[in-house]
Backbone:
């Protein structure tokens, strides 16, 4: 069973976004919706869905051109088109009768090997397929995406008792690898996993907030990043989701679950929905309201639940949160759980509710504890799931606190108390819902996961390590803050190269498992050395940086880079020089040095000129015909263009057509390892180029002329002009060269280093760096 074509029925917000994610993955998809009786365009709703996805922010498409993979139609004229689909998913109205009617029609036209799915967030899957044939029921599996599907990693896969296990396996592998999703296999129960536990948490937080006398803004401070959770925390998440959605889901869950689970909404929450009709972002008002001040600047007002008036409360300060700033997550969680006063009272109440409920749901919503943890992490942006958080606090401590509150322990916690075990995850094991230890099954090839047997640290520094990935492949892994590039990171790459040669390894992967591949150079260090006039040291440091980045191309063994997330400045330069790149689809890559008054100094300027020159026909690599390549490199670097996906990075030239894009970030290290092994047999060490054509003074003159026009027109600042002229000098191959000159890579690297140091010595650049370090934003001086 292979999924090569798909169909989505229902072109609303969710259906269109699912279709967009399929297109992102390169899967042709048919998008159908109903016919509006008074509209002459019978495909209006499907077309509107695609247009909505194209305009969505954040963007639903990784590359707008992928929208061409979506064929629109309607359910009256085009139902027959479903016969070509290997996977059919519905995202229509949440009404059981409507879904049953749809499946009766689909069964008549779908091919007998097609997998059939519902994206329902609450209607049990087994109820939808009552009355359908045995073969249809065998191929039916729930597929609950979270909005927006491109960015939220979670996909709940929900088999019914009739679903063929082979279908679950095939579909899960497709969704994980091709669509890039994190798979949680959920039981076919009300709310499944994430919504069942997540909505319970929101409902209980509302109750505890009013008991403790706190405001929504204070609660969001307490339950946000300080606790290792998303910045939208509790009530901002509610506004984003829609208060009406939470209202209906909580009411439905309250009817479908035992009384002790308590999904009862507070009177204030009910009043927001029933009386005020304030439903969150969709109506412009919820727990928060956006407005503009007299200068047109956006301001966020907070809801006073006593008066139902919106107030400007300024920057909300919470003592318990301020007390843990800058500390590691484990320390923050322990301190917040033990905090005093109304803040601590609230947190213990809501956290204990969450612990108790997650333990009660073990074996109910899913058969594995890690699926519950992953559902909350991937669906709601938590750093730790509830069982991982209990491990941080000590499970026996949590049990004692629950008993002190007079709670009856769920069977899982009762079993943990009896065993004396203080952690669910321990020694490569995790307990089952019944409390018995069992070997842990890691969802991916993740080094930082509990599955450590395939990894071995060969050499370790404070900010980086060399790790044996097995099968003769080494990994140079960075693990500093934002993976800023300094001495530890550079020396570790050098260590890894030497180990590959000395120990007979096949090759090297450059990658890591932080939040981002690398945000670039260590700016505080560079600035402090410049201000101390340590120019010889800086010159040596840039030479070393160039030697290490270019070593990825000119080593005797293959190197593969595995970038993801922010891959900026020096991080991009490392990526550009690898023999091959396995990039996460969510890649935000750019040479952004001009933002701090510099140009790329680690070979990035050289590499982009070389790439764009090589893209031209041989007859265009001479004289004035070379200018478009120079201009393209200049525009890319001079505007600090950053890709919004790996597909755009390829369009911009940061990735080659031969490089690999992986939809699932958690697969890139494993894929990179495979690429090293594929390149290793017969690998021939490349040699630096000596034949790069440049235009010299002719290109400098052309670029300067354009720059001065932009400066006079007010499009660039005085200091933009200074930086741009240095960039033009490098891309032109230096002054004094004529139109037919050819230079070496080393010549361009020397020009880069000279321009970098020249700019670093200027007051304007140092002001830009200081401003970036202080505010996180570029200075336009």
Residues:
């Amino acid at each position: 069973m292979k999924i090569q074509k798909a169909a989505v029925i229902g072109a609303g917000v969710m259906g269109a976004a699912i279709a967009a994610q399929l297109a992102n993955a390169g899967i042709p998809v048919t998008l159908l919706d109903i016919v509006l009786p008074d509209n002459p365009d019978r495909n209006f709703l499907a077309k509107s869905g695609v247009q909505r996805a194209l305009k969505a922010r954040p963007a639903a498409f990784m590359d707008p051109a992928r929208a061409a993979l979506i064929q629109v139609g309607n359910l009256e004229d085009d139902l027959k088109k479903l016969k070509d689909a290997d996977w059919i998913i519905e995202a229509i109205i949440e009404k059981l009768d409507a879904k049953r009617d749809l499946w009766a029609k689909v069964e008549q036209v779908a091919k007998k090997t097609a997998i059939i799915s519902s994206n329902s967030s609450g209607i049990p899957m087994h109820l939808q397929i009552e009355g359908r044939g045995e073969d249809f029921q065998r191929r039916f599996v729930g597929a609950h995406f979270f909005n927006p599907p491109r960015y939220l990693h979670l996909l709940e896969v929900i088999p019914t008792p009739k679903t063929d296990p082979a279908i679950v396996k095939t579909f899960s592998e497709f969704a994980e690898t091709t669509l890039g999703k994190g798979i949680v296999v959920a039981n076919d129960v009300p709310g499944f996993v994430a919504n069942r536990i997540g909505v319970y948490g929101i409902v209980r937080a509302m109750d505890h907030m009013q008991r403790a006398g706190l405001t929504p803004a204070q609660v969001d401070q307490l339950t946000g990043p300080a606790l290792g959770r998303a910045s939208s925390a509790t009530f901002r998440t509610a506004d984003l989701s829609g208060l009406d959605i939470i209202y209906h889901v909580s009411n439905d869950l309250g009817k479908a679950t035992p009384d002790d689970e308590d999904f009862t909404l507070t009177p204030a929450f009910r009043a927001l929905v029933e009386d005020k009709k304030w439903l969150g972002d969709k109506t412009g008002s919820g727990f928060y309201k956006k407005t503009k001040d007299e200068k047109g600047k956006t301001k966020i007002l907070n809801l006073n639940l006593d008066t139902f008036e919106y107030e400007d409360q300024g920057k909300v300060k919470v003592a318990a949160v301020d007390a843990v700033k800058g500390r590691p997550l484990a320390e923050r969680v322990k301190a917040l759980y033990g905090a005093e006063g109304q803040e601590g009272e609230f947190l213990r109440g809501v956290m204990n509710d969450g612990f108790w409920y997650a333990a009660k749901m073990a074996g109910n919503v899913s058969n594995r504890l890690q699926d519950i943890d992953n559902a909350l992490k991937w669906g709601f942006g938590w750093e730790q799931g509830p069982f991982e958080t209990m491990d941080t606090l000590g499970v026996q401590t949590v049990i004692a606190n629950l008993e002190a509150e007079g709670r009856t322990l769920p069977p899982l916690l009762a079993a943990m108390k009896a065993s004396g075990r203080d952690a669910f995850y321990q020694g490569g094991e995790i307990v089952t819902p019944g409390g018995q230890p069992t070997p842990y099954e890691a969802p991916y090839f993740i080094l930082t996961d509990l599955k450590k047997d395939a990894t071995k640290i060969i050499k370790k520094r404070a900010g980086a390590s060399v790790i044996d990935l097995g099968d003769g492949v080494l990994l140079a892994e960075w693990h500093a803050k934002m993976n800023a590039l300094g001495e530890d990171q550079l020396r570790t790459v050098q260590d890894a190269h030497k180990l590959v040669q000395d120990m007979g390894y096949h090759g090297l992967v450059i990658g890591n498992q932080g939040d981002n591949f690398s945000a670039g150079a260590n700016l505080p260090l560079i600035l402090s050395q410049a201000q101390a006039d340590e120019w010889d040291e800086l010159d040596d440091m840039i030479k070393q940086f160039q030697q290490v980045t270019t070593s990825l191309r000119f080593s005797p063994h293959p190197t593969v880079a595995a970038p993801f997330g922010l891959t900026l400045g020096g991080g991009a330069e490392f990526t550009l020089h690898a023999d091959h790149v396995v990039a996460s689809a969510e890649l935000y890559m750019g040479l952004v040095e001009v933002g701090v008054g510099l140009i790329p100094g680690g070979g990035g300027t050289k590499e982009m000129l070389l790439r764009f020159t090589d893209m031209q026909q041989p007859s265009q690599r001479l004289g004035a015909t070379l200018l478009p390549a120079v201009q393209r490199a200049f525009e890319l670097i001079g505007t600090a263009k950053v890709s919004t996906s790996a597909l755009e990075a390829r369009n911009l030239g940061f990735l080659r057509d031969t490089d690999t894009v992986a939809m699932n970030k958690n697969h890139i290290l494993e894929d990179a390892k495979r690429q090293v092994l594929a390149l290793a047999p017969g690998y021939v060490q490349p040699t630096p180029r000596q034949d790069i054509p440049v235009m010299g003074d002719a290109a400098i003159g052309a670029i300067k002329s354009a720059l001065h026009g932009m400066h006079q027109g007010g499009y660039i600042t005085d200091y933009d002009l200074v930086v741009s002229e240095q960039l033009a000098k490098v891309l032109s191959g230096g002054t004094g060269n004529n139109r037919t000159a050819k230079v070496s890579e080393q010549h361009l690297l020397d020009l880069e280093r000279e321009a970098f140091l020249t700019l670093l010595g200027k007051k304007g650049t140092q002001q830009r760096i200081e401003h970036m370090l202080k505010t996180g934003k570029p200075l336009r001086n």
In short: Confidence is low (pLDDT under 50) at residues 449-454. The chain has four domains: 6-185, 194-439, 451-592+642-686, 597-641+688-781.
